[in-house]
UniProtKB/TrEMBL annotation:
<dbReference type="InterPro" id="IPR036928">
    <property type="entry name" value="AS_sf"/>
</dbReference>
<dbReference type="InterPro" id="IPR023631">
    <property type="entry name" value="Amidase_dom"/>
</dbReference>
<feature type="domain" description="Amidase">
    <location>
        <begin position="35"/>
        <end position="454"/>
    </location>
</feature>
<comment type="similarity">
    <text>Belongs to the amidase family.</text>
</comment>
<dbReference type="InterPro" id="IPR000120">
    <property type="entry name" value="Amidase"/>
</dbReference>
<dbReference type="Pfam" id="PF01425">
    <property type="entry name" value="Amidase"/>
</dbReference>
<dbReference type="GO" id="GO:0003824">
    <property type="term" value="F:catalytic activity"/>
</dbReference>
<dbReference type="InterPro" id="IPR020556">
    <property type="entry name" value="Amidase_CS"/>
</dbReference>
<protein>
    <submittedName>
        <fullName>Amidase</fullName>
    </submittedName>
</protein>
Length: 476
């Protein structure tokens, strides 16, 4: 019997998009097990996984084949993926990126894991994340750093850096991530991918509901807009007890990629939300080129003031510190926490209950004003990051956690704005530097308008396709 990739001419399986792999499974050209075996055989040289689960993936794939394709199966049925190591997975080591949990094995899986399993997507392992998903780089003490395959001396970003590195290096076709301040869009920019943070409440946080502020949400990392939309169709939906929810779409999100967005009003700004940040020329060029492209596509692009005031940053930091303090180490293992985590936790513990409540209320007021200021516009355009991917270790500073945190803010001065407002936002790989580093641009839409955002993103991708652009060398 010929190897499955030989059926695709010059293309091997990981060259296919996730949707093309799903089509191949549906047509009987390849089995879920053949896909699992193909990806399991690929070496992880980018720090993508903390824990691999190849045998469990094989078992799941065999079960899928024996049971047969359900009549209501989605287009990604039988396509492998991975689970970010912040999501408890029954019987599988789940470290939360922390040495304090290096031997923790949950007894139950959270809602996202169960959703992915029910969709017929075998998981090849737990994708790497920094401790508790806090930093914007992925350098956990329990695994090697996650690096971008475009230059393995540079970070894959964070906190979904492992998921992004895996998709960019062809170790997974598509992967879920999570995003509380940019943790999907940052690695998407660093790894040359599409990274979609959906609206607040679009994807359930059950059963833990670990973020009482409402900043964080799961989302998708993919090579194409259509793949990102298809995985959003898998993940989206309410569960009983959800504190936030978004109204259901009018049709599958994948269908939105086939609709013309119409003529849109695009607001744009480039001044960082966080003051005193130097913006690299490549980020400016990417933003300017994207502006021209949107105009060429028939949209009206207008400059607007920064809609989030500087004082919102302090409120965000207060909430971020308290959220970090809500992730303690097991008793007796506090010394295994990273200096940054201990520093942020100490800041969080110093916040009183009324101070925390006031910070949440202030953030919501800032969000309301921003949404009102942007209400006349269909989408908002900014750079994703202030610079190309940083070198591994360049942002991290264990000796000075305050400096570490300042470095992160300077790297990501726009992304957290849309976590505050709850707007869906997507990073698109529209630019590369002269030395081959990816630089993303970011589009955000009104809350619950993922369909419009995906329609526009698909139009942009059709105009300047990037799917055939591959990292150099060993990941071919």
């Amino acid at each position: 019997m010929s190897r499955p990739e030989s059926r695709y001419g010059q293309h091997v399986l990981h060259d296919l998009t996730a949707l093309e792999q799903g089509d191949a499974v549906r047509n009987g050209d390849v089995s879920p097990l053949e896909l699992v075996e193909h990806y399991a055989a690929r070496a992880d040289e980018v720090g993508a996984f903390i824990t691999t689960t190849h045998d469990l993936a094989r078992e799941h794939a065999r079960t899928l084949t024996e049971a047969g394709r359900p009549t209501d199966a989605g287009p990604l049925w039988g396509v492998p993926t991975g689970i970010k190591d912040l999501h408890p997975t029954a019987g599988v080591r789940t470290t939360f990126g922390s040495a304090a949990y290096d031997d923790f094995v949950p007894e139950e899986s959270d809602g996202l894991v169960l959703t992915v399993e029910a969709a017929g997507m075998p998981s090849l392992g737990k994708t790497s994340t920094p401790e508790f998903g806090s930093p914007c780089y992925t350098e956990p003490d329990v695994a090697p750093p996650a690096v971008t395959p475009w230059d393995i001396s540079r970070t894959a970003g964070g906190s979904s850096g492992g998921a992004a590195a895996a998709v960019a290096a062809g170790l997974l076709p598509v992967a879920p991530g999570s995003d509380g301040g940019g943790s999907i869009r940052i690695p998407a920019s660093c790894c040359g991918l599409v990274g979609l943070k959906p609206s607040r409440g679009r994807i359930s946080g059950a059963p833990r509901y670990g973020d009482p502020v409402g900043l964080a949400t799961p989302g998708t990392l993919a090579r194409t807009v259509r793949d990102a939309a298809a995985l959003l169709d898998v993940l989206a939906g309410r569960r009983v007890g959800d504190p936030f929810w978004a109204p259901p779409p009018t049709a599958p999100f994948l269908d939105a990629c086939d609709r013309e967005p119409g003529r849109l009003r695009v607001a744009r700004f480039i001044a960082p939300v966080i003051a005193d940040v130097d913006v690299h020329p490549s980020s400016v060029t990417a933003w300017e080129n994207a502006s021209r492209l949107l105009e060429q596509l028939g949209h009206d692009v207008e400059d607007v003031p920064v809609p989030i005031p500087p004082e919102a940053v302090a409120d965000f930091e207060t909430c971020w510190a308290v959220l970090t303090a809500l992730s303690p180490a097991p008793p007796g293992r506090e010394d295994r926490l990273r200096p940054l985590t201990r520093w942020l936790s100490a800041r969080g513990h110093a916040v009183s209950g009324p101070e925390f409540g006031l910070a949440i209320g202030s953030l919501r007021q800032h969000a309301g004003r921003a949404l009102a200021a942007l209400a006349a516009y269909d989408v908002v355009l900014t750079p994703t990051l202030a610079r190309p991917p940083a070198l591994v270790g360049e942002l991290r500073d264990d000796a000075d956690p305050a400096r570490d945190f300042a470095n992160q803010k300077a790297f990501t001065p726009w992304t957290s704005a849309w976590n505050v407002t709850g707007m869906p936002a997507i990073s698109l790989p529209l630019h590369w530097t002269d030395d081959g580093l990816p630089v993303g641009v970011m589009l955000a839409a009104r809350p619950a308008e993922e369909e419009l955002l995906l329609s526009l993103a698909a139009q942009v991708e059709s105009a300047v396709p990037w799917v055939d652009r591959r990292p150099p060398g060993r990941w071919a």
